[in-house]
Amino acid sequence: MNPNGDTRSQVISTYHDHPRFICATCSAVLALQDELISKSFSGREGRGFLMHSATNVKLGKKEDRPLLTGVHTVADIFCMGCNDRVGWYYHKAADLSQKYKEGKYLLEREKMVKENNWKLDE
């Protein structure tokens, strides 16, 4: 898929009334907060969050990348709303101790906003 293609019309609005992470640039929903596995990861631009799933993202090209915990096969992920790179997807981990990351998403903390959707008494 071309990460530079216009995909704004494909953004799904979902997860109403659920705490979620949204894109800091365009406010597209990227993930439910319930999908968070760990906040103690490192992304390209600082802190990263490991997530079970993500939405409104498209995969870039698959590549082998040396990361802090060894070489992983990953693909950058891009927001469907604004095409910003928001993290990466773990396809494969070479080291046995890192296999738990396979099929998971790393979302860059700086690229998203936590939205709690609190209900206020009127």
What this model shows, in words?
The protein has strands at residues 20-23, 29-32, 36-43, 46-51, 57-67, 70-79, 85-93, 105-108, 112-115. A hairpin with a 5-residue loop joins strand 1 and strand 2 (29-32). The protein contains no helices and 9 strands. 30% of the residues are buried. The strands form 2 sheets. The chain has a 6-stranded antiparallel sheet, with no helix packed on it. The chain has one domain (8-115): Beta Complex (Metal Binding Protein, Guanine Nucleotide Exchange Factor, Chain A), CATH 2.170.150.20. By secondary structure, the chain is an all-beta fold. The model has no long low-confidence stretch (mean pLDDT 89). Pfam families: Yippee-Mis18. Residues 19-116 form the Yippee domain. This is Protein yippee-like. Keywords: Metal-binding, Zinc. Belongs to the yippee family.
